[in-house]
Amino acid sequence: MIDIRSDTVTKPSKEMLEVIVNSEVGDDEYKEDPTVNELEKYSADLLGFESGLFVTSGLMGNQISLLNHTNPGEEVITTQDSHIKNYEHGAASFLSRIQFRNVSHNDGDLHLDDIISQISKSSYYKPKISTVAIENTHLASGGTIIPFENIKKLSEFTKSNNLKLHVDGARVWHAILEENTKANYGKYCDSLTFCFSKGLGAPIGSMLLGSKDFIANSREYRKKIGGGMRQVGIIASAAKYALENRSNLITDHKMAKEVFTVIKNMENKIDCIESVAYKGTNMILLNFDSLSNSDEFLKYLADNEIKAGYLREKVIRFVFHKDVTSDNKEKIIKTLQSFS
C-alpha cells in the first residue's frame, strides 16, 4: 500500500536504525545526553538562534512558546485556519489561558496592514495583543511558503510594537530548501519550532529554538507539562540523521509537482474535481464538488493500493515523503490517469 495521507507515516530507514542502535546517550534531565546536546546546538546554529530544546512534538514546542510569550487573558494574532489555533486540541486556552485573534491572509502570509489595524483597535475593553504566530509552510493552504523577506518585514513591525513573533515551522525546511536561501530566523523571530517526524522522516521529536533565556524558561515549562526525558539520545540521533539529510525534501517537491501536472492536465476531464492546488512543496490538494464523489475517489485509490485522506471536507490531500519511491509515483500517475 502506498501511503500518501501525510508525511508523518514514514518509517526509519536501515541507515537511520543503525544510527539509533549506535546512539551515545546520557540523562537529558541532567543535560548529560551528548546526542541531544549536539542536536540542540546543531539546530540552533542552522537557523541563527542562541539555543534549542528537544521536545516530543510540535504541539509541545508551540505551547511552550505561548507559555513564554503570553500572560493569561492576552491575545495572539494568527490565521483562522492555523495549526496552533485549530489542531492542537485547545491547548492554548487550557495551558496559557489565552485566546486567538484572526487576521486575513494570503495562503498563510499575514497581511501586515490587517495586523496594524488590529493593534490600533486595541482598547481598555479588549484583551492585550502580545504575540503574532505564523506558520511556515502553511498546512491548511496546502504547504504554501511564506517568503522569508515577508517574515523580515513582519519582524520589523513586531519589534517596533513590542510584540513577540513565533514561527510554527513544522515543515519550515521545505520552505528554506525551496527558496534556496540562508534563513536566519533567529535574527528576526523570538521563537521557532520545527518537526523531525514529518517530512524529515524521523520517528519522534521536534525542536524549539530561541534565546538562551527563552530556552531556560522553556526547559522548566517542558518539565511542568511532563516533557522531561532521560536517555533520549536514542531518538535524538534519528532526528539529527534526518536533519543532516534534509536536502532529500526537494525530491518530494519534484514528485508532488509531477503528479500535480498530471492531475491538472486531467482536470477538465474529471467533472467531480473542482480545483487542484500545488503550492511548491510536498502537498497537493484536490477539491471535489461533493463529499460522495470525494469518498468514491478515495475508495478508488484504496482499491488500487493507494491510501490518501482528507485535509477537510471534500478536500483530499496527497503528501509526498521519503517512503514514496519513483515506482510508487509512477503507479500513482497511472492510477490517476485511469480514473473516470
Automatic annotation (TrEMBL):
Please give the Gene Ontology molecular function terms for this protein: L-allo-threonine aldolase activity
By its UniProt entry, which Pfam families does this protein fall under? Beta_elim_lyase (PF01212)
Which BP terms from GO are recorded? glycine biosynthetic process; L-threonine catabolic process
Domain Aromatic amino acid beta-eliminating lyase/threonine aldolase per the UniProt entry, residue ranges:
3-270
Keywords on this record? Answer: Lyase, Pyridoxal phosphate
N6-(pyridoxal phosphate)lysine-modified residues are: K198
Name a single GO cellular component. cytosol
Keyword Lyase in annotation: yes
Which metal ions or organic cofactors does this protein require, according to UniProt?
Answer: pyridoxal 5'-phosphate
- Protein family per UniProt: Belongs to the threonine aldolase family.
What's the protein here called?
Answer: Threonine aldolase
